[in-house]
Design a protein that fits this description.
This protein is mostly beta strands. The chain folds into 2 domains: about 140 residues, Kelch-type beta propeller (Neuraminidase); about 80 residues, no CATH class. The chain is built from no helices and 35 strands. Keywords: Kelch repeat, Repeat.
């Protein structure tokens, strides 16, 4: 990449390009998979880290919140892929970073939790792409940041784990878009944050890591969690990508023994086991991973042994 970045976002656009944005500054750039090159695109209006990026139905990218100078942001902006220009849109009602964002079936964007000046948030809000405005929705039952969010096949939104400001969480809850309400579901077997969550072909949700190597599966039909095979390496701040063969690729992250990890491994949903695959060139955490049209996975940036990274690699 042209710029070193960490805790940034990466969005695969309709044309197959990958847009990376932020990670300490306002810059953004595009990766062309056909030429394997990066080009700068328009700068965001506000520098941010720990934000979210969502690809809307109109192919614009909505970026929300994050932090600048250690202060949480309530601002949001839109990237137009045809012009390469960012424009501001309505501010969120609550400033937040380390939150999540999900596209609902009706095209709205649901933002949940996060942190604001040290306080962990239970609030959630909805963005309307038509009006460019935010409305608050029901609060989660538990305040959380650094959690995961998954869109289930039944349209419900599953939020799992996270950090409540003092401890890791094992709680999970479901958002019903039709009733605009949250209900608790069974707790995970292990408390975790800065973990990953991946939707499998059978509709189950695989959560992995978050300080240890444990992984577990959520069954949306029964609302229950069951443990599955442990990863070979304990990790947090990693990425997880579902491949065309239905395996889940986990890359990098951090652990207290191995530091910044360059290791990667694959989860086989048929056997519930993990196998080691080729190492990345660089150890990294808080990086991004994007699945390209050709099935390759593009990993970008992050933080490594010697600081922020501008390197990118393909699996």
């Amino acid at each position: 990449m042209n710029v070193e970045r960490v805790y940034h976002t990466a969005s695969t656009l309709a044309n197959g390009y990958v847009l990376v944005a932020g990670g300490w500054d306002v810059s953004a750039e595009l990766y062309n998979p056909l030429t394997d090159t990066w080009t700068n695109t328009g700068n965001m209006n506000i520098a941010r880290i720990g934000h979210t990026a969502s690809l809307l139905e109109n192919e614009y990218v909505l970026v929300t919140g994050g932090m600048k100078n250690d202060a949480a942001l309530n601002s949001a902006e839109l990237y137009n892929p045809l012009t390469g220009i960012w424009t501001t849109t309505g501010n969120m009602n609550v400033a937040r970073a380390a939150h999540t964002a999900s596209i609902l079936a009706n095209g709205y964007v649901l933002v949940t939790g996060g942190v604001n000046t040290g306080a962990t948030l239970s609030s959630a809000e909805l963005y309307s792409p038509i009006t460019g405005t935010w409305v608050t929705t029901g609060n989660m039952n538990v305040a959380r940041a650094a959690h995961t969010v998954s869109i289930l096949t039944n349209g419900y939104i599953l939020v799992a784990g996270g950090w409540d400001g003092s401890a890791a969480l094992n709680s999970a809850e479901l958002y019903n878009p039709l009733t605009d309400t949250w209900t608790t579901t069974e707790n995970m077997n292990t408390a975790r944050y800065y973990h990953t969550a991946s939707i499998l072909a059978n509709g189950y949700v695989l959560v992995a890591g978050g300080w240890d190597g444990s992984t577990e599966l959520y069954n949306p039909t029964t609302g229950t969690w069951t443990m599955t095979g442990n990863m070979n390496v304990a990790r947090r701040d990693h990425t997880a990508s579902t491949l065309a063969n239905e395996y889940v690729l986990v890359t990098g992250g951090f652990n207290n023994n191995g530091g910044y990890l360059n290791s990667a491994e694959l989860y086989n949903p048929s056997t519930g086991t993990w196998i080691i695959t080729a190492n990345m060139t660089a150890g990294r955490e808080f990086h991004t991973a994007s699945t390209l049209a050709n099935g390759s996975v593009l990993v970008t940036g992050g933080y490594g042994k010697f600081g922020m990274l501008n390197s990118a690699e393909l699996y």
